[in-house]
Amino acid sequence: MLTRRKYLKNSAMIAAACAVPTELLRAFDSGDLITRAIPRTGEKIPIVGLGTSATFRSVAQGDDVTALRGVIETLVDNGGTVLDTAPSYGASEEVCGQIARKTGNTDKIFWATKINVARRGGGTADPAAAQAQVERSFARLGKDPIDLIQVHNLADIPTQMGIIKEYQEDGRIRYIGTTSTNRRRYADLEKAMRDYRIDFIGVDYAVDNRLSAKTILPLAQELGIAVLVYIPFGRKRLWSRVRGMDVPDWAQEFGADSWGKFFIKYVAAHPAVTCVTPATSKPKNMLDNIGAAYGELPDAATRKMMEELVDGLPSA
Ligand SMILES: NC(=O)c1ccc[n+]([C@@H]2O[C@H](COP(=O)([O-])OP(=O)(O)OC[C@H]3O[C@@H](n4cnc5c(N)ncnc54)[C@H](OP(=O)(O)O)[C@@H]3O)[C@@H](O)[C@H]2O)c1
């Protein structure tokens, strides 16, 4: 949560920030952007978005958020829309809302946020506090209806899913879902997917972390649930595994001229995946990441080669 003083300071900084370097804006022809349909409605969204925990969250918490303005403008100007955040990501949700408002991008963004007021370790959620948190998200993001709210980490699903379902029925949330990036809770995630009529899940998936592709992703396809992919780089893990290595020449054939594109295109090519949301705090990395949503995606045989290459690397 931001203090009023910090909020005003951020506002001034965002308004005064130099324009994003022109090479980062409209670097691609957005007519060529790869999109995927949300199974419940057929609405299409770009296959790459932005996550806001990790480094984004640290910068949002700090004294200078101007780089994050560059990240969001680079996302939107290059055709991206999906922005995944959460009330629990420090100042991220509030700062994203603030930047979007100041740059006139609020309505261009597909806002994916979360609900969770339950105590860690299986605690229950106070319904009044959960509702207050949703109302705070409306105020921070400035969009009503909010595009997507998911129950964070499967916490007190009966209470919190009930609340967002009511908002959905009232037309104030377009899509609902739940998230988990903990493989020990995949069975609970599967149960939630079967028990509730949800539109989305968020789950971890990366070229060196493929467990969700065995159970969760096929189930999502079977049940017609959209998938946001989290932690596509394993945070720092994949970066340290390829440190000092060049991307192989054969990957350039499907447009992966950087490791960022290599990792994102691998997960985006899975047919169950609707959108991949890597986090970044740097506009130039945002351009790299959204670039993965252009050009080709690897076919099944190429994905196998990608897995073999990464499996052969030393572990992080
Ligand atoms: N349970 C849940 O609901 C849940 C759990 C985990 C994650 N998530 C969501 O998923 C998002 C993504 O996961 P994550 O943030 O944990 O990890 P991640 O996206 O796998 O990794 C982020 C890291 O990669 C770096 N990076 C990003 N783009 C890069 C590029 N092109 N080149 C080099 N480095 C790059 C970032 O640093 P720089 O800032 O330097 O670019 C940061 O250190 C989260 O932000 C969050 O929105 C949800």
Q: What does this entry look like structurally?
A:
The chain has 316 residues and is of the alpha/beta class. The chain has one domain: NADP-dependent oxidoreductase domain (TIM Barrel, Alpha-Beta Barrel). Helices cover 41% and strands 14% of the residues. The chain is built from 13 helices and ten strands. It has helices spanning 4-16, 54-61, 66-77, 92-102, 127-141, 157-169, 186-195, 216-223, 237-241, 249-252, 259-268, 283-291, 300-311; strands at residues 35-37, 44-46, 50-51, 82-84, 110-115, 146-151, 173-180, 200-204, 226-230, 275-276. Helix 7 links the parallel strand 7 and strand 8. Helix 3 (66-77) runs parallel beside helix 12 (283-291). The two termini are 34 Å apart. The mean pLDDT is 95. The protein binds NADP nicotinamide-adenine-dinucleotide phosphate.
SSE class:
alpha/beta
Radius of gyration: 19 Å
What is the domain total for the residues?
A: 1
Oligomeric category: single chain
β-strand percent reads 5-15%
> Count the helices. How many?
13
Q: Write down the CATH topology.
A: TIM Barrel
Structural shape: globular
Strand order of the largest sheet: 3-4-5-6-7-8-9-10
Helix content: 40-55%
Major sheet, described briefly? 8 strands, parallel
The H-level CATH homologous superfamily, spelled out, is: NADP-dependent oxidoreductase domain
Write down the overall mean pLDDT.
95
Which sequence of SSEs, written as H and E, runs from N to C? HEEEHHEHEHEHEHEHEHHHEHH
CATH class category: Alpha Beta
Low-pLDDT stretches? none
